[in-house]
Amino acid sequence: MQTLDRLIKLAGAASSAVGVVGSAVQRAETLRFPLHPGTAFYLHAERAVVSIARGADPSVRVEARWQPPFAWHIVFEQDDSGVYVVALRSRAAHLLKGIAGGLLTLRLDVLAHHDTPVILRLDSTRLTVDQVSGMLELTPDGLRARRF
């Protein structure tokens, strides 16, 4: 019985340690930016997984998850013209790329109002677009979008 109690305590301690280590190597943030007509959303991301969706809420919601925190420079800003998100790998990440490339991850889930212009500057990024109407054209120079 003492062995079982000791194993349960060890399992609890291990679980707590995993939670502490997880919060040290991974960061998450959810931000909501209120919008007024004419406000645009600008995203500049590098080596990320980005999901863009449209909704009726007059705001932009950005859910960001990245690891490890020191490997990314992420800035969120808003002014009268727009909401800006820049998410680029840090210099340390470029040095670690060969060793820990698969462990350097960034995911951005964006929900923007239907009328909000979305402007993307992406570098080696996986993009998912959901609930969008229009035409997207992938050219050698990049991606262009047009309304029907």
Structure description:
- This protein has one domain (25-146).
- It is 23% helix and 51% strand.
- The model is unreliable at 17-22 (pLDDT under 50).
- The strands form three sheets. Strands 1-4-7-3-9 form a five-stranded mixed beta sheet. The chain has a four-stranded mixed beta sheet with strand order 5-6-2-8. The protein has a two-stranded antiparallel sheet with strand order 10-11.
- It has helices at residues 2-25, 91-100, and strands spanning 27-34, 40-46, 49-55, 59-67, 72-78, 82-89, 105-113, 118-123, 126-130, 135-139, 142-146.
- The protein is of the alpha/beta class.
- The protein is built from two helices and eleven strands.
Kindly list the characteristics that best describe this protein:
4-stranded mixed β-sheet, 5-stranded mixed β-sheet, 23% helix, alpha/beta, 2 helices, 148 residues
State the gist of this model.
This protein is of the alpha/beta class and 148 residues long. 23% of the residues lie in helices and 51% in strands.
Radius of gyration: 20 Å
Tell me the number of structural domains. 1
Q: What is the strand arrangement across the widest sheet?
A: 1-4-7-3-9
The low-confidence parts are: 17-22
In terms of structural class, how would the helical and strand content be classed?
alpha/beta
User: What's the quaternary structure here?
Assistant: single chain
The percent of residues in helical segments reads 10-25%
**How many β strands by DSSP?**
11
Distance between the ends: 71 Å
Please trace the helix and strand order, writing H or E for each element.
HEEEEEEHEEEEE
Number of helices, counting only DSSP H or I runs of 4 residues or more: 2
Average residue-wise pLDDT: 80
Choose one word for the global shape. Answer: globular
**Could you give a short account of the major beta sheet?**
5 strands, mixed
Strand content: over 45%
